Structure to design on (1032 residues):
């Protein structure tokens, strides 16, 4: 196998000018039109030799086996790793270690590949070796701390993070892991300081390249801030300033923005600052950039808020157990297609029936929920309305539902109704069953109508989405 | 040697060139001119006219004349002309047919091969629409060439010895493009391209027209908005004003009898200063900065490293534009190429490279980049719509890249490979350009089996996608021709009445067609109109195919609409 210099026909270590000259001369003979394969080979070699290494943090001289075979294996490893084939990359590293021993560069690659492959324990071992062997190289200490953290050794990790940070190590990913670890070890203030140091290390010029780091930093800050009194407003303000100043770069970071947005809304809720003007400004920016996604995110945030409220409600001693599990059951059915035969429908009826039997005992519950759990009240509006309808209507509702419930209760388990009100269970013999319904239940996919929401989840109508595509 | 013609199909004007003795020569049209206005019209007698004649009737019959069709390329908007609606592709093909005719006369031989230039920032759909227009005009479209690259070629052919970094700033009638190229040893290498395909001289015209109409309303209390004849005249005056302001400090727009007030004619008399015009377009010019940043960023270069800033496109004649570039890049722009002809000339040079008139060992050659990111849909932690990038944008083509993926769930034996093009990380916002399925993956736990997906993209716009199951070496692949795909083949359905099923659906089709007739051209009903039209087509197709089930469903859909 030829190395890159050989492909270009130049001496190893040739300078940039020579590389360039050779490349431009060669592609005249092997032009994209005449010999596309050869062209690509030449091009790839040229790119590798002139590549500007983005990540300075790896730029550490490492002991490397000198054999040409080892070189080509290293190249192969890097290619596999970049192509996302971590397993084969790791296999190749291990093979190379078998031939050439635990050379520094090979150990480092082994650690990286183990980490990427999810073998966190082994990664720890690699970096422990490296850190012990090269105590001066902070890179390895930093990686070791991250490896501890990823393995779940948070206490050990925190100590390691502190030590390396104290020695001046500021790799972005390291800082982000450090701050997360702080979150787990209950020192949010320390985490915030770390993230602030990351934020301030990125100036206007390098902003575009380091967008990802910045977004991660702000997500981290937004997560930690509610735990430090008075901090949220400050973080929201900074976040807003950042978003306003980097609008034009943001479009490519849809997922990070999504998570930043939801985090901010949640944290604002947690500290009771939903009306904060910076939060509204952030909302506006995101809606501007992604009108559709914005709405979706708002939905996601509402959903999360609902969950948090439901969790709080579950802990609330004033609310009756019946109400708690009814709401739990109802929450399961949100945003699902309610099929008249389906389990969700059964659970919904189960909750409703129990509530109807007990009414008006739960009036107090409803009052508390209305006062203190706005989101829950909002989402289950129909449910409260049903409960509070007139006595006659309630009676009719109960009767209708009992019949359907009886049918469905043969198919599904987990209902509370008969358990709580055994006298309501119909005498099985007395009910005439439709013979067809005795078969095993297969939930067949409902046929999607042209105007129904598309099943791919895009939110568009089916006819405008997958139907057209496929 | 077969002649291949280079055509610059512009928003406001069209030019063509061919290579003669190694040098590009502009082709002269029937009016004895190089420049043909990109305007199509229908004259009093119902004949189609193109170019100057069409432009001439713009004022008299704006309802029978179409301009700026390029801005709508790739959309399904229709352009009304006389009694019929035309697609932008049809209009463009009329212009190209006109070019083909005059070139045939000029060269004394029929020309049926062409290189057509498009803005670098045109997306695949717009490129395909351009190819289709070329085909309709009877051309074999050999290559779609980016306009700034073409301009750089026309510069490069006379500067073969230079070693320089060239930024082409192309602000035309409708689009803005910026491309960074490296010239070395007679090879032009495109480093990066970006732009804004909704920004150009036409936007300046609109701003100015709006301003003049606003001033007129202020003075006389009359709104010209609804009067298409008055607006057409005002628009023409604004274009003239814009052009004049490039050479003089102020310009007086004088339009006698543009409106009437209580039976008395009212004139528009407004003096526009250059400063005032600059104030109007300042915001638009600012929008050019971002694409410039993107290309510098993508090619890892600082503004100081640029050796030359080449101006192309009529709008670069505006002094304010030139000043803005000089301020923003800290470098005086160059006028080394003719801003109106350089693109057509470059297209002719590319045509010469293709047909061998330019020797690849000796003459100029170029490498181009892939303007859009290509990838496939995958699952990730957040979403099932994640765009996993395989070939990023601005990579020199031809190029082949691979990625390895793992099975997503236990017992997965097949996978859909959906190929997307676009810059968003969610495929939802990108274009799907192809899809295929690979099956026969050995069943196993999630993540056990690996699938290697290779993309290979060449300079003719062919994208080959191959998926390989690594454990069995089994393969599946698809070839997407970026110059061909996109438009689904429309089958001729006029013979549906003869098909066996016709009897069952006659009534519904009659009713639907009645509805269509009634609502034709109504703006509010536009979306429904198009949908129903499509449904009727589908139904006829189903009738011909004898697919009763499908036809029944379509019937139901049609009934729900009318």
């Amino acid at each position: 196998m030829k190395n890159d210099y050989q492909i270009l026909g130049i001496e190893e270590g040739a300078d940039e000018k020579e590389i360039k000259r050779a490349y431009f001369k060669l592609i005249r003979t092997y032009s994209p039109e005449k010999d596309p394969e050869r062209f690509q080979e030449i091009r790839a070699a040229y790119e590798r030799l002139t590549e500007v290494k983005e990540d300075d943090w790896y730029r550490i001289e490492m002991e490397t086996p000198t054999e040409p075979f080892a070189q080509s294996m290293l190249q192969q490893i890097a290619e596999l790793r970049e192509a996302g084939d971590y397993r084969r990359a790791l296999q190749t590293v291990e093979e190379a270690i078998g031939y050439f021993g635990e050379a520094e560069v090979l150990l480092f690659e082994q650690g990286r590949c183990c980490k990427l492959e999810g073998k966190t324990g082994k990664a720890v071992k690699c970096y422990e070796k490296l850190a012990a062997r090269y105590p001066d190289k902070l890179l390895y200490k930093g990686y070791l701390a991250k490896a501890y953290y990823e393995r779940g050794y948070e206490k050990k990790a925190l100590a390691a993070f502190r030590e390396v940070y104290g020695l001046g190590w500021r790799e972005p990913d390291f800082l982000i892991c450090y701050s997360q670890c702080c979150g787990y070890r209950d020192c949010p203030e320390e985490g915030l300081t770390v993230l602030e140091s990351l934020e301030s290390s990125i100036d206007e010029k390098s902003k575009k390249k380091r967008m990802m780091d910045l977004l991660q930093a702000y997500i981290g800050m937004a997560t930690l801030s509610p735990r430090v009194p008075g901090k949220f407003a400050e973080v929201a303000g900074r976040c807003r300033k950042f978003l306003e100043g980097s609008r034009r770069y943001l479009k490519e970071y849809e997922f990070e923005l999504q998570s930043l947005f939801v985090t901010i809304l949640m944290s604002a809720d947690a500290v009771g600052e939903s009306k904060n003007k910076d939060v509204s400004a952030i909302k506006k920016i995101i809606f501007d950039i992604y009108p559709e996604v914005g709405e979706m995110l708002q939905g996601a945030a509402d959903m999360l808020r609902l969950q948090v409220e439901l969790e709080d409600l579950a802990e609330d001693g004033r609310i009756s157990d019946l109400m708690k599990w009814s709401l739990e059951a109802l929450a399961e059915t949100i945003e699902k297609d309610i099929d008249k035969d389906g389990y969700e429908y059964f659970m919904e009826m189960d909750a409703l029936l129990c509530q109807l039997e007990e009414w008006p005992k739960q009036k107090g519950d409803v009052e508390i929920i209305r006062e203190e759990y706005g989101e829950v009240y909002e989402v289950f509006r129909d449910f409260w309305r049903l409960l509070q309808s007139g006595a006659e209507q309630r009676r009719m509702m109960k009767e209708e539902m009992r019949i359907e419930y009886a049918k469905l209760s043969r198919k599904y388990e987990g209902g509370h109704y008969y358990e709580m009100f055994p006298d309501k269970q119909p005498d099985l013999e007395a009910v005439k069953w439709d013979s067809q319904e005795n078969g095993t239940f297969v939930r067949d996919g409902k046929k999607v109508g042209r105007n129904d929401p598309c099943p791919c989840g895009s939110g568009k109508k089916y006819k405008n989405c997958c139907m057209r595509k496929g | 040697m077969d002649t291949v013609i280079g055509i610059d199909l512009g928003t406001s004007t069209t030019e063509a060139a061919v290579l003669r003795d190694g040098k590009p020569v502009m082709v002269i049209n029937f009016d004895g001119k190089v420049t043909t206005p990109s305007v199509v019209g229908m004259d009093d007698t119902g004949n189609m006219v193109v170019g100057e004649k069409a432009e001439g009737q713009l004022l008299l019959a704006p309802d029978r004349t179409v301009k700026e069709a390029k801005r709508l390329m790739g959309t399904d908007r229709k352009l009304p002309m006389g009694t019929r609606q035309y697609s932008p592709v049809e209009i463009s093909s009329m212009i190209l047919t006109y070019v083909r005719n005059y070139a045939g006369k000029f060269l004394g031989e029929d020309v049926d091969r062409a290189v057509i230039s498009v803005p670098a920032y045109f997306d695949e759909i717009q490129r395909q629409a351009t190819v289709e227009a070329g085909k309709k005009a009877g051309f074999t479209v050999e290559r779609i060439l980016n306009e700034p690259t073409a301009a750089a070629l026309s510069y490069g052919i006379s500067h073969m010895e230079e070693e320089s970094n060239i930024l082409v700033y192309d602000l035309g009638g409708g689009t803005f493009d910026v491309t960074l190229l490296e010239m070395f040893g007679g090879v032009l290498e495109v480093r990066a391209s970006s732009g804004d395909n909704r920004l150009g001289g036409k936007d300046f015209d609109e701003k100015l027209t709006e301003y003049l109409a606003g001033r007129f309303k202020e003075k006389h209390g009359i709104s010209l908005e609804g009067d298409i004849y008055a607006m057409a005249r005002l628009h023409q005056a604004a274009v003239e004003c814009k052009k004049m302001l490039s050479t003089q400090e102020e310009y007086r727009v004088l339009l006698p009898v543009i409106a009437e007030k209580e039976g008395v004619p009212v004139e528009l008399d407004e003096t526009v200063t250059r400063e005032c015009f600059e104030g109007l377009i300042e915001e638009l010019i600012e929008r050019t900065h971002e694409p410039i940043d993107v290309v510098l960023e993508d090619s890892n270069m600082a503004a100081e490293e640029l050796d030359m800033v080449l101006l192309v496109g009529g709008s670069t004649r505006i002094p304010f534009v030139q000043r803005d570039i000089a301020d923003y890049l800290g470098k005086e722009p160059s006028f080394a190429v003719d801003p109106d002809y350089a693109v057509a000339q470059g297209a002719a040079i590319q045509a010469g490279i293709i047909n061998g008139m330019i020797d690849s060992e000796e003459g100029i050659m170029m490498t181009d980049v892939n303007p859009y990111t290509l990838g496939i849909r995958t699952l990730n932690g957040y979403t099932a719509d994640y765009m996993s990038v395989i070939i990023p944008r601005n990579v020199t083509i031809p190029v082949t890249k691979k990625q390895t993926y793992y099975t997503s769930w236990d017992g997965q034996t097949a996978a859909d490979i959906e190929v997307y093009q676009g810059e968003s990380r969610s495929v939802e916002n990108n274009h799907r350009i192809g899809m295929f399925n690979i099956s026969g993956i050995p069943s196993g736990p999630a993540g056990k089996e690996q699938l290697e997906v290779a993309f290979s993209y060449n300079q003719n716009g062919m994208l080959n996608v191959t998926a390989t199951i690594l454990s069995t070496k089994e393969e599946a692949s698809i070839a997407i021709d970026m110059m061909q795909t996109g438009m689904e083949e429309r089958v001729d359905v006029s013979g549906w009445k003869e098909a066996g099923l016709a009897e069952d659906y006659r009534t519904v089709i009659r009713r639907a067609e009645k509805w269509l007739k009634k609502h034709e051209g109504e703006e509010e009903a536009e979306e429904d109109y198009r949908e129903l039209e499509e449904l009727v087509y589908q139904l006829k197709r189903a009738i011909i195919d004898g697919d009763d089930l499908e036809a029944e469903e379509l019937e139901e859909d049609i009934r729900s609409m009318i």
